[in-house]
Amino acid sequence: MSKFVIIGITDMPHPNLNREAIQYIAESRFFSGGIRHKDLIQDYLPEEAEWIDITVPLTDVFDQYRQIDETIVVIASGDPLFYGIGNTIKREFPDAELVVYPAHNSLQLLAHHYQLEYGKMHIATLTGRDWPEIDLPLIRGEQMIGVLTDRQKTPHTIAQYLLDYGFDNYDCYLGEKLGGPNQKCRKLSIEELLELDFVHPNCMILVQKKPIIRQFGIPDEAFRRLEGRPKMMTKSLIRLASLSSLQLDAASVLWDVGYCTGSVSIEAKQAFPKLKVIAFEKRTESDAIIRENMKRFHVPGIDIHNGDFFEQNLELLSAPDRVFIGGHGGRLNEMMQKLYAILKPDGCIVFNAVSDETLSTFKESALELGMRLEKSSRIQLDEFNPIEILKATKVE
């Protein structure tokens, strides 16, 4: 069985290691890490040391590990189990014996520098990952967010993303080359972050100055709507009743088919920020409208798909366990069949029927597909026609 000793270090030359870690190094022959790590640890390495550079693709590195039946000492930055190589080795070598000697990670070093109370800090790693990692804490209004960056998700691009969605309510603590002789730390506004020159590696801690006040049941008049068609959106009370029928607290992926202004998608994502929301709309003008509304209500992270729904390659998307049909283009039966084929077992479809014809079509389509019709609700608002909120569940 393989054995890995993973030693975390900072960027200080000749890092201060404990006695056990030094002993493992002295008694071992095989070592691995980045080029930077080798330079820092050089004085500790025995003369016969053999070094394996950790470079991409990692599969090549792991193939070399598998050829070794001795202990491999891996040198890593900070805490190897904090979004580090330690977790990757655990996944790749689940039966291996693992010994870990951590150092402080970069966010800890930055928090220590500014004496920030970081016990409740939410971590958002954008290192090799996309924006949903930071969307969740932003929508939740987390008071402190630690952000791990990379060469694509830089302080500049992160600052622009925050400003695009109105998250200027945070101060930013930026740390560069933390734990080494060239460490640099600065406290900045999000706007100042845009004008900054910086070096890698770096990380950020966002500290909230004031919360964004959110409202469950956003007033209809607050949304930007289709020009000349103000009634073309799901009204607030109907929207909330539909969201209730969807039972999103137990959902993972919502498809909003026919999003129009994006009111259902935005309300759903705001209330359930962990939810993956995929929104579809045929009207080309709706693209700018939903994006403006997302920024207006500080709700990033909705995956938007424009064009004819029936021409979309749905197999490329995350399968839904919840679907809201906001528009069907007169092809409700065909849409139900297409959705049923990709809907997860026990998933449901919710539809607001505004006529007896669409009510009958939805029910008949659901029964033909073997779905279970749930109890419906009938609501009438002011002078509008009554609306029947229908729900069908996929039973398998």
From TrEMBL:
Pathway: Cofactor biosynthesis; adenosylcobalamin biosynthesis. GO terms for biological process: cobalamin biosynthetic process; methylation. Keywords: Cobalamin biosynthesis, Methyltransferase, S-adenosyl-L-methionine, Transferase. Residues 233-367 form the O-methyltransferase C-terminal domain. GO terms for molecular function: O-methyltransferase activity; protein methyltransferase activity. Transmembrane segments: none annotated. Pfam families: Methyltransf_2, TP_methylase. It comes from the Bacteria. NCBIfam families: CbiE, CbiT. This is Precorrin-6y C5,15-methyltransferase (Decarboxylating) subunit CbiE. It comes from Ancylomarina salipaludis. The lineage of its organism: Bacteria, Pseudomonadati, Bacteroidota, Bacteroidia, Marinilabiliales. The gene is cbiE.
